[in-house]
Amino acid sequence: LNQARKLLSKATALSDQKRLLMAIASGKVSRVDRLLSIGLQQKKGARGLLALYMAAAEGHYTPKSFTEEEDMKALLVWKLGGNRVAEINHRANKGQSITYLRSRSTVPPLIPSHEQPTVEEVRANVEATFGGVLDVIHSLNHSKFVHAVLMFDELATEKRIRWDPKTNYFLVLAVGCRGDFFSGMAKFFGGMAIPSHQFGRSSGKVHYAKEATVGALGVLCKDNRIYPGRPVLVSGDCKQESGEEHAEVIKTVLKGINELQDKTKLRVVTLASDSETRRGSSFIQLTFKSRLSRSSPIYPLLKSLDFLNMHVGEDDLTCDKDWKHVFKRWRNLLLRRRGVVVNGLRITPDIIRNHFKSSGLSADYIRSLFNPEDQQDVKMAFDMLKDIWSLPRSSSNSHRGFMDAREALWTLGKLLYHMVFPYLCVDLSLSEQIEHLSAAAHLALILYRLAGKEFIPTNLYTDLMIMIKNAIFCVAKAKIDDPNGEFWLILLGTDRLEELFGILRTMVGNDANLDILQLVSRLAGTTEVSNILSKYPQWDRSPRRLKLPAMSRESKEIPDSADHIKPASWRGNVNLKDISLQTSWNRGRRIVEQECEGLKHVLDKLDKNNGIDILSPFGTLL
Q1: What is the pTM of this model?
Q2: What number of H helices and E strands is found in the chain?
Q3: In Å, what is the CA distance from 7 to each residue of 10, 15, 17, 47?
Q4: Is 60 left (phi over 0), alpha (psi -120 to 50) or beta?
Q5: CA pair distance 130, 115, nearest whole angstrom
Q6: Backbone angles phi and psi of 344, in degrees to 5
Q7: CA 606 to CA 622: how far, in whole Å?
Q8: Do the beta carbons of residue 317 and residue 257 sit within 8 Å?
Q9: 3-state secondary structure labels for all residues of 352-382
Q10: Phi, psi for 428 (deg, rounded to 5)
């Protein structure tokens, strides 16, 4: 009898389990995993789980527990799609409500600069964007400071006047074309807009700002919770200010950040931007004030690096040019009819086409590489530069002119290889990255010394050298402030600010511009989206034209589900304690001397000339 009862009990339990399995298979309830998880936490058996499932299927019960990953997905939908899409997700997929998502959102809105940016506004924005991650920054255990890049770029905006209720100011006016730069404008009193010049600020013309200058901080660390770019400045721009006036804006931002250094532990070690001329002028004023002092902690690390330019700003500040922009400008230069001069031979687009054709590349592919209408395609720029450095030194064509051109292209390819490879080969150690950059600096110095502006334009040459110099200085500062830490070269530049702009375009569409008030309200959301995608990179797929592939030592592209080269995907040794800057710098020179033996005499001659460095190839700063 007892045996029969046991069998009947087991049969009933088995029947309940089958019924539960059949119910789940019906697909009437979404998020079954959460429903079962909650039921099991409540110690329910198969029958209790079945009852819970049936209640959910009939709409009487909805599981309210969400995982961290589900919350992050819902936040992405809300930030990128807006309230309407989030509400549809809530009702159709039983997802999180907007009220719940607001409680999970961690980044408060920014304060726009309605006129000349102030230290107080920058301080408030730094506290707002970093307030939720200060505990993470403090847990990094850096002995002194956590280093950061201060990035700047512009975004086109609508010429539309908007009132900001939080500050009681109108936005999107620019005042003082002849002198004072400040964006924004008129304070709202009693329903009237009072032009700023009536407050004595300016007597110049009043007009719309057509762009917004955005400044953001990017922390140099691998923690995906804090390394995405974080905006600290949003200011209208009329494009009329001089380099000196823009330098004052940057100094204000730096002061606002530095006043919170004791709280944030952040030290700005470099200023980064693209190739915009006005900002380049302001960067030079701020970062070429004097030569590196002998009392500087980094001086012993850099004093023996031949040809390295030693000019710095306050606190040994240096400037940087975004490496992706430099790559694009090289391709755009090679598309021009005047070409470049290497080894006394002018390399024109037609010569490059002929050598590509002789190496077996198809006519359609070559035509796409030389498409002049697509000058912002980073992937296209990489493909062209890689195809040049992949050309063999020898050829079956024995014509003297062809062979001379191939030798010149091979030399140019070596420069391009050493310039690009350290940013894309995830197998390289930090020492090897510096060796490649040193080789690029020495070879570019030789070629510019021989041909001057006929080799490449002075602006491109100086930007390339500024990029390399900044990398060396940033490594030196990191070795002093965090000797047991790590350093990722790929985090330099403005890529993280560009990612925020890309997310912003996803929110509003590629064919529409924001006004400044809309920009400010959405920019905080882009930071949150960037944080989430940094944590879950497999969810993201950036536009093909902005993607650069990760490469192995053999220059082969590495297939990866993640769409960006991030610190987590870097496989080489980037420990600061394992690098000697002097050794790596000297190895880079020896690489050039071995690969290009015919150019070694140029370096030997430069050794005898005082005052020569990578930014002073003829003895004076370019």
Answers
A1: 0.84
A2: 23, 16
A3: 5, 12, 15, 17
A4: alpha
A5: 24
A6: 80, 5
A7: 17
A8: no
A9: HHHHHHHCCCCHHHHHHHCCCCCCCCHHHHH
A10: -75, 145
Side-chain half-sphere exposure of 530, counting CA atoms within 13 A: 28
Dihedral of the alpha carbons of 546, 550, 554, 555, in degrees to the nearest 10:
0
CA distances to 267, 304, 441 from 393, in Å: 46, 34, 22
| Residues 359-369 as b or e (16 or more Cβ within 10 Å = b) | eebeeeebeeb
Element (H, E) at 271: strand 266-273
Q: What is the spatial distance between Cα 532 and Cα 224, in angstroms, rounded to a whole number?
A: 8
**pLDDT tens-place string over residues 411-428:** 999 999 999 999 999 999
pLDDT-derived band of residue 537, with 50, 70 and 90 as boundaries?
A: confident
Q: Are 602 and 589 in contact (CB under 8 A)?
A: no
Nearest of 477, 460, 386, 418 to residue 596 by alpha carbon: 418
Degrees to nearest 5, angle at CA 95 with 90 and 96: 85
Return the CA Rg of the chain. 29
Listing DSSP states for 490-542 in one string gives GGSSSHHHHHHHHHHHHHH-TT-PBPHHHHHHHHHHHHHHHHHHHH-GGG---
Sheet holding 266-273, edge to edge: 230-237, 211-219, 146-156, 266-273, 318-321
Q: Name the CA dihedral angle for 22, 27, 28, 30, rounded to a multiple of 10 degrees.
A: 130
Sign of dihedral through CA atoms 8, 10, 16, 19?
negative
Contact 270, 318 (CB under 8 A): yes
Exposed/middle/buried for 169, CB within 10 Å: 0-12, 13-18, 19+?
Answer: buried
User: HSE of 102 in the Cβ direction (CA atoms, 13 Å)?
Assistant: 7
Least confidently predicted of 29-43, 451-465, 568-582: 29-43
Q: 355-363: long-range contacts (C-beta < 8 A, 24 or more apart)?
A: 355/391, 355/395, 355/405, 355/406, 355/409, 356/387, 356/391, 358/395, 358/396, 358/397, 359/387, 359/390, 359/391, 359/392, 361/387
**Are residues 568 and 538 in contact, defined by beta-carbon separation less than 8 angstroms?**
no
Residue with tokens 């959405």: 522
pLDDT tens-digit series, residues 140-180: 766 678 999 999 998 887 777 777 777 777 675 553 443 44
DSSP letters spanning 92-144: HS----HHHHHHH---PPPPPBSSS--HHHHHHHHHHHHGGGHHHHHTT--SS
Q: Strands 318-321, 340-342: parallel, antiparallel or unpaired by DSSP? A: unpaired
Helices (H), 370-457: 378-389, 400-424, 430-451
Amino acid type, 296: S
* Nearest-10 crossing angle of helices 516-535, 68-81: 150
Side chain identity, residue 344: G
Rounded CA-CA distance 271/527 in Å is 20
70 CB burial (10 A radius; 0-12, 13-18, 19+): middle
Q: Which of 164, 340, 291 is nearest to 236 (CA)?
A: 164
**Does the pLDDT at position 444 exceed 90?**
yes
Nearest Cα to Cα of residue 522 among 231, 257, 127: 231
Whole-angstrom Cα distance, residue 253 to residue 230?
A: 13
Residues 34, 67: Cα–Cα separation, whole Å:
8
